[in-house]
Every structure is written in structure tokens, then in C-alpha cells.
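Notes from hallway chat w/ T.B., transcribed later so I don't forget. T.B. wanted the structure written out for a chain they're using in a teaching module, and asked if we could keep both sequence and C-alpha cells in one place. Agreed to drop them here.
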Amino acid sequence: MAARITASVYTSHVPAIGAALDSGKSHEPYWQHVFKGYDYGKQWMKDNKPDVIFLVYNDHATAFSLDMIPTFAIGTAASYQPADEGYGARPVPVVQGHPELASHIAQSVIQQDFDLTIVNKMDVDHGLTVPLSLMCGQQDPTTGSWPCPVIPFAVNVVQYPVPSGQRCYNLGKAIRKAVESYDEDLNVHIWGTGGMSHQLQGPRAGLINREWDNAFLDRLIADPAGQAAVPHIDYVREAGSEGIELVMWLIARGAMNDKPPVVKQRFYHVPASNTAVGHLILENSK
């Protein structure tokens, strides 16, 4: 038996979503529709519980300052504390890692000529914990736990130059090969987080592009190779300066098998804070 990737999950990781959950505001009219879009996903997670989640996200200057920013960094620690992002750590459980699988993936992917930074200790910010809360529900920070171990995989989409969509898509394929060469029977889900269209500063602050976002979702499902070829400047022009986070979704999509995926959930909503929220669940075809 060997490990296998059976599904991929895609979601925005808006920090205000975490704040709304943590302060009990999820039932307020502004937030109700956002969280309703994840009701299916929470049940799907219970029905399709993975053994490990490989979670692709970007750090927001917490684990990595502007003094040192790796393009791709894989967490190989046994656990990860929620980060204090300037207003205290989120009240969520410690994230348990999977050092053995993470180290195997690092070995395999580096031998496939992708340079990864190996991180043996780091805190994880809202980029990782908000998706877990959305898909797994609120967990008590002291007595609760996330449903399975998580391997954090941080991508630099903060300081230029950032990796291309093509590089991310190819990296996903390398991660798939790495997982499938691990000789333990593990059901692995891979998550791509960040986006969708948004810009946080400058004259275009508040930019949201519904048409571009939904076309991205269409292509991610049906033509990921075509989406991988889209240059980064198109993301910036059409989806705003922070829209480049969407290249991380291509890592998760590249890790799926080559057959058309089964679409289990698709959700899109504007606005949540000053961004568009997108969410997909794809299962591998047999």
C-alpha cells in the first residue's frame, strides 16, 4: 500500500473570517451567507476524513519577516503554534504535523529539482488556521483538536519576485509523485488557499473582479494547464495585487490525477471584508 491524494480543497483565507468566528459574529447578517457556503464542506470533511492535510498557504510576515522569505517552505515539525499576528494568537488548537510524510515529500520534491526550504519550527498564521476553521468548524483551543495532522507548505506571494502559475502547477505534480511514493496507507487531502480577487492598498484598494474570479474557477476545474500558463501580471491586473495568491491553488490542482475531477462543491461570494471569497472541493476520478 502507498499514500494517495484523493481530494483537493480550495478556499480564501480572509483574516476577518477568523475574527468573525472567534468573536461569535458568524450568525450576523453580513457573515451568514459566507459561512453557509462552507456547511457542505464541514459535512464533507466528516464523511471523507483524511489522514493528513497538505495545506498550501502564504505566511503574512509572521514566521518569515521581510529579512528572509523563502519561495517555497515545507514544515517538518511535530506541531505548530497559532501565531500572534499583532492582536494575539487565534483561540484555536495547536496544529499537529506529520514529520515523517513531510520529510519524505521534501526529499522527493528536492530530488525532482524543486528547491524547498525545510522548516523545523514555525508558528502558523491565519493563512493556515482560517481554512481549518472553515472546513472543520470551531475547535476549543485547550481541549479540542483538528481532525488530522497538517503539513504546512508556505509560498511567497508577498514580496516580488513570486513563483509563476506554471511553476506552482508543476510543483503540484511533483508533490503528487512524492506522496504516491510514500509506503504507508494514507489518505491525503491537498488544500490550496488564498485569494480571490482583492487589493489592500493604493488607488485600486477594494478591487473585486467577479467575472475573472469565476473564469479562474472554470479553468481550474476544466483546464488547469491553460490556467497555469497565465502570466502573473494578468493576476495583478485583473484580480488586484493580492490576487496573485491564486497561484497557490495551482499547486493543489497539479497534485490531482490527470482525469477530470469530480466537483463536490463550488461557492463564490462578495464581499467578505474587502475581498471575494471562493471555495471548491474536488475529488479525484477513479
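Follow-up for T.B.: The radius of gyration is 17 Å. Might be a good example for the class.
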